[in-house]
Inverse folding.
């Protein structure tokens, strides 16, 4: 229950950041950089009486129906919650600010800040194994019937939307929309990797027993003891291998520094760790 609440908390933080980026940067400047948001912005140009928030909600409902028909109901409660709440958040902001209110009308600044906020928000939502629906569904349908990889299918859909904005608005807005598509993918990947990064650590120490005890008892983690042999000395030795969070690694580093200043420690980034003590591999 606690884990679920934590997941929904972070999904809420994610869609609120995303809603802020859409409301104050992307939508009022007509930067249709992919997704249901982009489609809603394009439709809103022809039907301005229907807000972007309402159009996003209608489009997502239609896409969910299409998904149930063509690819089954493989969309969890977290995705439905994020999708509907995102539209609700933008609609709520529309009540307090004019629909076309923008913090800046400079297209470059709007693209940079709007895409940055959108990428951070989406990255947080995706990191909780959820999504905001939308063109993910179109990409899945394309993947099912044309066997195009999901990543490529999503990129194709978003680029089509961005190119359409160049035709409907003008070439300059279209170019900024394409820039937004490229930046968004990079930011989402960076955020997901950053949130999931752990430290992969190899340790050679004469105080091995103390280090093992500290990892198990103080950090509540485990480690693997590997047999080794010095290439230069030919001496048999033991090597410890463990994976820790960033804060845990700092504690371990300080402990090793205190008990064995001659220890040999190798540290590298582990961008995804699945299994006991970390993310449940069954969710992937």
């Amino acid at each position: 229950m606690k884990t679920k609440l934590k997941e929904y908390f972070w999904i809420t933080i994610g869609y609120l950041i995303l809603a802020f980026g859409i409301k104050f940067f992307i939508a009022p400047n007509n930067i249709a950089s992919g997704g249901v948001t982009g489609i809603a912005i394009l439709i809103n140009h022809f039907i301005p009486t229907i807000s972007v928030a309402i159009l996003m909600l209608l489009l997502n409902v239609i896409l969910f129906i299409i998904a149930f028909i063509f690819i089954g109901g493989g969309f969890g409660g977290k995705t439905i919650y994020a999708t509907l709440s995102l539209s609700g958040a933008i609609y709520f902001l529309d009540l307090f600010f004019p629909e076309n209110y923008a913090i800046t009308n400079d297209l470059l600044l709007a693209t940079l800040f709007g895409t940055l906020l959108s990428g951070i928000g989406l990255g947080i939502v995706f990191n909780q194994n959820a999504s905001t629906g939308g063109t993910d569904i179109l990409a899945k349908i394309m993947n099912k019937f044309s066997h195009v990889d999901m990543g490529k299918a999503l990129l194709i859909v978003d680029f089509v939307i961005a190119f359409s904005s160049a035709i409907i608005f003008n070439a300059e807005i279209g170019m900024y929309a394409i820039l937004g598509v490229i930046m968004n993918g990079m930011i989402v990947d960076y955020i997901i990797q950053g949130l999931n990064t752990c430290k992969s650590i190899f340790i050679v120490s004469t105080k091995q027993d103390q280090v093992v005890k500290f990892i198990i008892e103080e950090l509540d983690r485990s480690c693997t003891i590997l047999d080794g042999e010095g290439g230069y000395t030919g001496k048999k030795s033991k090597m410890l291998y463990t994976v820790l969070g960033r804060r845990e690694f700092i504690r371990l580093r300080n402990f090793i520094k205190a008990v064995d200043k001659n220890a040999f420690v190798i540290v590298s980034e582990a961008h995804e760790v699945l299994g006991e003590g970390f993310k449940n591999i069954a969710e992937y």
